[in-house]
Amino acid sequence: MNHQPNSNPHDGPQPGPQPGIDGYQAAPGQKPVSPRKLLAGAAVVLVILVVLAAAGILKRMHAHTVLAARTNELAAPTVSVAPAHPGAPVDTFVLPGNVTAYTDAPIYARSDGYLVHWYYDIGAHVKKGALLATIDTPELDKQVAQAEADLATAEANANNARIQADRYSGLVKSDAVSRQDTDNYVSQAAATAAAVHSSEANVQRLKELQSFEKVYAPFDGVVTARAVDTGQLISQGSGAELFHMQAIATLRIYVDVPQLYAGTLKRGMKIDLTFPEHPGKTYVGTLVRTADAIDPASRTLLAEVDLDNRSGELMPGALAQVHFKTPNAGPSFIVPTAALIFRRDGMELATVVNGDTAHLVRVAIGEDDGATVEIVSGLNPGDQIVQDPPDSLIDGEKVTVVQPGSKPTAAGGQ
User: Fold this and answer.
1) Minimal CA–CA distance to 226: which of 309, 133, 116, 135?
2) Protein fold of 78-87+331-402
């Protein structure tokens, strides 16, 4: 009896290997990969690539932003700032003044001749009417003698003409002489009388010139110059002065006051004055007058201060320091001179607003001592002043601010 191999009647034919994706077959015992999983994997890879690309782009954009910020920071000028110091409530300013004599006069000759003698030299204090010099005028003396002789002749002629006129005036009443002859003698008498007056005036003129042979002091003062000597030829006129005199009992000090302070000056106010040759000593003068007009060239007001100098301590021609004290019309500030910006439109200062922005303001200055200046308008309390601004600084420009004595910090630094 033939035996057949054992077989399971329920077992059907076993399936063979199946073709995989793209014609490839899965390995024996491995499940085939579904298309959905493959698409998901590809999407993940794509997302990773996009993320990496975006990270690179963002990194470069950040680097570009940091570079631009650093470039802008380095391009902005570095400035040092400090607050403006408030000025004094009473404005005291010092101006130079020219000291002159109260009366100053050169003495000239009015007659030609030779100097016989002079009586006072430089530094002599003389009274009004004091004889300063004597001039010999021989030609003028002869002219006076001639004029007196001409006057005598004119008087004789006038007297004779008057007698003839009186005689004919009496005879014409009885028709003893003609009316015409009478009129001629009357006219001749009037003409000779006029000639007498002319001769008298000429004599008087020459005698007045002769009186200038003696040179007298015109006022109380001091002789500050003598330009002649004995025997020197003297010519009348203003060609060469004989003496120079100055009245120094009271001195005039002329000072040019800036237009800003012109309205604060009052006649009669007391003014302190100091002189380099008298250190530590203060003199008090009186403001007596002003020009009442601003000089358009210098924008100043000319003022005169009179000072009592009967002691003779001070000399004309010196330089005085005139100390004015006026109340401030508003708040003032003191800033370094180097902070000023000179522009075509006027004086400006650079301030910093919002921490990093330059702002230019127009200002008016008061007292200037060379190192610092007083700002009387244009600034407000708390303004931060750029101490030494660059010439190219413009309004609204970004700046890098540092405090005096410190160093600027780089952007992004720790």
Assistant:
1) 133
2) 2.40.420
